[in-house]
Specification:
The complex is a heterotrimer. Chain A is of the alpha/beta class. Helices cover 53% and strands 13% of the residues of chain A. Chain A has helices at 3-6, 19-30, 47-59, 106-119, 144-156, 175-179, 191-205, 213-220, 225-238, 252-266, 270-285, 290-304, 307-326, 330-353, and strands spanning 37-40, 67-77, 80-90, 94-97, 132-136, 161-167, 182-185. Chain B folds into five domains: 8-95; 113-290, Rossmann fold (3-Layer(aba) Sandwich), CATH 3.40.50; 296-375, no CATH class; 386-520, no CATH class; 524-602, no CATH class. Classes of the chains: A alpha/beta, B mainly alpha, C mainly alpha.
Chain lengths: 354, 612, 204
């Protein structure tokens, strides 16, 4: 088991980061009636951890017994019956899933699941009809129609089903859904907090950390706690005992993007563009999301540029990322960005150096 | 004879009155705009029109409306005429037999298939027919190719050459709905064609050929033409298994014919299924022979031969036209020949638009207007014309000097926007003839355009890329709100194709020095397929591995969890995550292997997420 | 509407009258609801606090009015959420954290970074905003308020910045990435503030 999962705090008391939020959540749950919740914040900041801990707080240890199920939902969509298959985690009190994985049919999935949950309401300790919790991940990836239907279904079935939504950026969640939930912002942990967590894990694993080592890892992980712990584990495997200036390698796809960036800086021509395209295909085939590729590429390029070009390049990055959302084939837009960059850079080189 | 009355004068006719040969009808030359629906089914007066097209010079144009209308009307008239033509022919005592059947090749020499291919197949047959019972020879041959290229003709011809008998699976006729209802009410169970095929294969495997007419020394070849139609994974799986068993265990030389349909878009899974089927049957021991479309020369030879036999007068040019229009399909060519031998003078002696459009200054005789290009109504569309069209767009041939200024008020374009005039028809008409969909066109252009851009001109590459982006955005918008408004959808699609094509034509202003480039199929499609498989794989692995701990988002898995696991080398984590391809640097080698392997494993996995 | 006018009356509720088509709007009598004034809202809020036994501190009421922007439902929801999370004694800070409004100092930090003309500094601030998890659409609207009320900018500069804010907002609604859009806005703001020539516009 990865350390990320092994040392994940199971209860709200044991949470190391976001103690305040945990306290508030505890207060929230002591009363019987819990509202719909929307947890938002950057990746790796601890939203999932808090949600799990919250469920534990609400339902006790039975919420830990989770079963994985591959459910197929048969939904009537107009004139046809669709077969949608999704992975869900179930316990007696909650259901967790990723509706955005259903692609175009996410709207049906959302409606059907909530309806189904409403049908089987469990009895709570007092004998009254309790409610189940539905945890939905990646709500910001849901289509607009799915979010509309979510809103309607939320209202209709709110007595039998509580929703806990989890997303990275709340701007992409529609206003209507946001206003019906209690929004809980989970900010990324500060570097100090991350260092504390790493030291805690280090102690538990019985490792000796040289001074400043944890701080270096925290710095390299871009304020994502999950990334920090994963990097930590990687370093442990690569070399122990740790040395002071041990290399902390980035992820392999990140190195690859860095290679692409240097390729672009070295030569700007259609031939080079074609080669870059091939490399981008490899990244895409590995399921790296295209917007992440674009952002990382921008980061690598900005590192090597003079300030006057940075404005223009960041404009085009934003432009093409936006178009990529609107379009179907990410590679077209990624390639257009690279082509524009090459064009700008070549022009710059010519005007500067003749 | 055609003793029909005079036509009502409700049709627009062009003002060519030079048809003296017409004894039956007189033209009325009034210009009235009426709907095409009001064309009376009686008489067309086409002969005159066709004559005018082929003989006279450019007709005065009445404006686009008239011309389109003419085209429609002409088409209706042609159709009527053709139908009547058949009737006339029976009246004249001509045989009702289809020439395609009448002139079926009986011997190896008559085959229009390439001689080398015929030799190759002959050798393969020989091996199998003369093999003794002891050597477990691989008995199955797989003939693959487009329709009408001579697959079954070859089998028959070669079998007769060796004196072997052909035993064909009797393709059961499809059950029509009424019949089914009748049967079910009388208690007969419905057996699908697939089931019948499966039971047939079982019988063959177990019992071989039991036929009283087959003597001990005569050799039999089993021919399976026309595989049952399958839809969906399950029935496809059954067919696959069935054929697999057949390949491995049949003791009689067998030939399976599979006609492939070229479909350009990657979202069509059936193409993938068929290709997989070919590959897996080959691995099971079948020997695959690909039949290519028949060459134009071969077609011409056959057509000329038939013409002579039937005493039909067609010029060499017309025969060439027919040969070209049939797209490598000889059955089609012969049938078209038969159709046109009824009324040979109807055949317009036009050339297909292969780029030789007259410029505005010169207009040679016999060539049509730019606007009226009657696509041959018997012609065939296939992706060959897509490649044709793509070739034109990519090569981007232009005149060597700017065109004359025709209008008085041309807008003055900025220097950087000016381009030389195109040396081809308007891109939109080429697109129309290519009959292709916008999505494949954009993808093909994207794949290939960089080969044609000058290596110094990265700005051009950007312009081209940005237009392709715009085209992609337009195509994506079709899936959204407009999904129910078909007309709007069509407009958007054609707009997208136009944007892509014109963007490529405009952007590529400094052409690369001309070399011959093969136009590649978009690698993008392959990437999308392997991405899809990979995603499914990751999801199922994650599910098994995590076992309820946490449901990670797929992007997190791809960007963080998996790379870490690979680095760590799997201590404690599930074994499933391991044994994946190496890091992306080595992806290139595995990419091709990836598709086929994944295809196979995913086909039988039950946990696969449904296609969307 | 016309077919059943004898048996049915229609009551339409909408946010923007201009989005209703003419034929429909012309057949209706229109009642316009203005945003509630601060007094009315405060009264109602105080009444609720009394009933629920909450205590607000001095500027909490004013904060509540400003962050709810005349929407009483939103104000009551914030009140309830704050009460849930923070108990019966609610401070202004609690209300802000519940409402998702970005603290003023964060907005100011970004604005000053743009003023300085240092791209890397602005980049750092943008990354900080994203890391804190603040919704960028909210950031844009707060920046907008800041820009409109600023005294030390020319109208032309304000116009340029606001134009960019509008475009970025549209892109966000389309689902574009927050970091890239905010970075682009920061970059444009920087250019406007430091009076970099408009000719650098590369939209052609």
């Amino acid at each position: 088991m990865l350390w990320v999962d092994k040392y994940r705090p199971k209860t709200l008391d044991k949470v190391l980061v976001h103690k305040e939020v945990a306290e508030n959540l505890k207060k929230l749950v002591t009363e019987q009636d819990c509202p719909h919740l929307l947890f938002y914040g950057p990746s790796g900041s601890g939203k999932k951890t808090l949600i799990m801990a919250l469920l534990r707080q609400m339902f006790g240890p039975s919420s830990d017994k989770v079963k994985v199920e591959n459910k197929t939902w048969k939904v009537e969509a107009g004139t046809r019956t669709l077969d949608i298959e999704l992975t869900t985690l179930l316990s007696t009190h909650h259901v967790e899933m990723n509706p955005a994985d259903a692609g175009f049919q996410d709207r049906y999935v959302v409606q059907e699941i909530i309806k189904e949950m409403a049908k089987n309401r469990p009895l709570d300790a007092k004998g009254k009809k309790g409610f189940k919790v539905l945890v939905l991940n990646e709500v910001d990836r849901l289509s607009r129609e799915a979010q509309h239907s979510l809103r309607r279904t939320m209202e209709k079935y709110s007595s039998s089903c509580r929703l806990i939504l989890c997303c990275n950026s709340s701007s992409k969640v529609s206003e209507a859904v946001r206003s019906r939930c209690l929004n809980v912002r989970i900010s990324a942990p500060t570097e100090d907090e991350m260092v504390r967590v790493l030291e805690f894990i280090g102690k538990k694993e019985g490792l000796q950390l040289p001074p400043g080592f944890a701080a270096r890892i925290a710095e390299k992980s871009n304020r994502s706690l999950r990334r920090a712990i994963l990097l930590f584990e990687t370093c442990r495997v690569q070399q122990y005992p740790f040395t002071n200036n041990q290399a902390i390698p980035p992820m392999d796809w990140e190195e690859y993007v860095s290679e692409i960036a240097s390729d672009i800086m070295k030569e700007q021509s259609p031939k080079r563009l074609f080669q870059v395209r091939g490399k981008l295909y490899e990244l895409l085939t590995n399921c790296i999301p295209p917007e992440i590729i674009l952002k990382r590429l921008l980061y690598e390029l900005l590192k090597k540029l003079d300030s006057e070009l940075k404005h223009e390049v960041s404009y085009w990055a934003a432009y093409y990322e936006h178009r990529m959302r609107l379009g179907q084939k990410a590679i077209f837009h990624l390639e257009a960005f690279v082509a524009k960059f090459m064009s700008i850079y070549k022009g710059f080189l010519i005007s500067t150096f003749g | 004879m055609k003793g029909r009355g005079k036509r009502n004068a409700t049709i627009v006719i062009s003002s060519s009155e030079d048809d003296d040969d017409d004894k039956d009808f007189s033209l009325k030359s009034d210009l009235s705009y009426s709907k095409p629906a009001s064309v009376p089914p009686t008489n067309p007066n086409k002969r005159a029109k066709k004559a005018s097209l082929s003989k006279s010079g450019p007709r005065p144009r009445k404006g686009p409306l008239t011309n389109d209308f003419d085209e429609i009307r002409r088409f209706c008239e042609e159709f009527d005429d053709g139908i009547r033509g058949f009737k006339v022919s029976t009246g004249n005592g001509m045989s009702r037999e289809l020439w395609a059947d009448k002139y079926k090749p009986c011997s190896l020499e008559e085959l229009a298939v390439h001689k080398k291919k015929v030799e190759e197949v002959k050798v393969l047959f020989e091996e199998r027919l003369t093999a003794s019972k002891e050597t477990l020879c691989k008995n199955v041959l797989l003939f693959v190719g487009p329709a009408g290229v001579g697959k079954s003709a070859t089998v028959y011809a070669i079998a007769s050459h060796f004196g072997a008998r052909i035993s064909e699976w009797n393709t059961p006729t499809p059950t029509i709905w009424q019949e089914h209802l009748y049967n079910s009410s009388s208690g007969l169970r419905y057996t699908s064609k697939l089931e019948e095929f499966e039971s047939f294969v079982e019988r063959i495997r177990k019992y071989g050929f039991i036929s009283s007419t087959v003597g001990p020394r005569s050799r039999v070849v089993l021919l399976i033409d026309d595989l049952p139609v399958v839809n969906g994974k399950v029935s496809y799986g059954r067919l696959h298994r069935c054929l697999h068993l057949l390949v491995q265990s049949v003791c009689v030389p067998t030939v399976i014919l599979m006609t492939d349909y070229v479909k350009a878009d990657s979202t069509d899974n059936s193409m993938r299924y068929w290709e997989d089927l070919h590959v897996s049957l080959q691995e099971a021991g079948a020997c695959k022979v690909s039949f290519n479309p028949i060459t134009v020369n071969s077609l011409k030879k056959t057509l000329s031969r038939i013409c002579k036999e039937e005493e039909c007068e067609l010029s060499a040019e017309q025969i060439e036209l027919l040969a070209k229009a049939s797209g490598g399909d000889i059955r089609h060519a012969i049938t078209s020949l038969q159709y046109f031998c009824l009324k040979p003078h109807q055949l317009p002696s036009l050339c297909l638009s292969d780029g030789s459009t007259p410029s505005l200054r010169e207009r040679t005789d016999g060539l049509t207007d730019l606007y009226i290009e009657p696509s041959l109504s018997f012609g065939r569309d296939d992706t060959l014309s897509l490649f044709h069209a793509l070739g034109k767009f990519l090569h981007n041939k232009r005149e060597s000097e700017p065109s004359m200024v025709l209008d008085r008020d041309t807008t003055n374009l900025k220097e950087k926007f000016v381009r030389l005039p195109l040396k081809m028809d308007s891109p939109e008409s080429i697109l129309r003839q290519a009959h292709s969909q916008s999505r494949p066109i954009a993808d093909f252009l994207h794949e290939n355009v960089l080969d044609f851009v000058n290596d110094e001109a990265i700005d051009d590459a950007w312009v081209v890329a940005s237009y392709l982006c715009d085209s992609d955005v337009l195509l994506a918008s079709v899936n959204g709100r407009m999904a129910r408004n078909f007309e709007a959808e069509n407009v958007v699609r054609s707009a997208a194709a136009s944007v892509a094509v014109r963007g490529v034509l405009f952007g590529n202003s400094h052409l690369a020095p001309t070399r011959w480039h093969a136009i590649r199929r978009p690698k993008l499609w392959q990437v999308e397929q392997s991405l899809w498989h990979y995603k499914c794989q990751m999801v199922s692995q994650q599910r098994d591995a995590n076992n309820g701990l946490n449901l990670y988002d797929l992007s997190v898995v791809a960007t963080e969890i998996k790379p870490t696991l690979e680095r760590i080398g799997n201590r404690g984590a599930s074994e499933d995550f391991e044994a994946h391809e190496a890091s992306p640097e080595h992806m290139a080698d595995d990419l091709d292997g990836l598709i086929l392997d994944d295809d196979k494993s995913e086909m039988t996995s039950e946990d696969e997420i449904e296609d969307w | 509407m016309e077919t059943y006018s004898k048996v049915t009356r229609f009551f339409f509720i909408c946010n923007y009258i201009s989005r209703i088509i003419e034929p429909l709007a012309s057949r209706c009598a229109k009642f316009r609801f203005k945003p509630l004034t601060e007094d009315i809202m405060s009264n109602r809020i105080l009444y609720i606090c009394q009933e629920e036994g909450l205590s607000l501190d001095s500027d909490a009421l004013a904060t509540l009015s400003s962050i709810s922007q005349g929407d009483l439902r939103r104000a009551i929801t914030y009140l309830q959420s704050a009460a849930r999370l923070f108990g019966s004694s609610i401070s202004s800070r609690d209300l802000i954290s519940v409402s998702g409004v970005i603290p003023e100092d964060v907005v100011q930090a970004l604005y000053s970074a743009c003023r300085s003309g240092n791209f890397d500094l602005a980049d750092k601030e943008v990354k900080n905003v994203i890391a804190e998890g603040y919704p960028v659409s909210q950031m844009l609207s707060q920046l907008f308020d800041l820009v409109v009320e600023a005294d030390d900018m020319s109208d032309e500069q304000k116009a340029r910045i606001c134009k960019k804010l509008g475009e970025a907002d549209k892109c966000l609604v389309d689902g574009a990435d927050e970091y890239l859009q905010l970075l682009d806005v920061a970059s444009k703001t920087m250019q406007a503030l430091c009076n970099l020539p408009q000719e650098l516009s590369y939209e052609s």
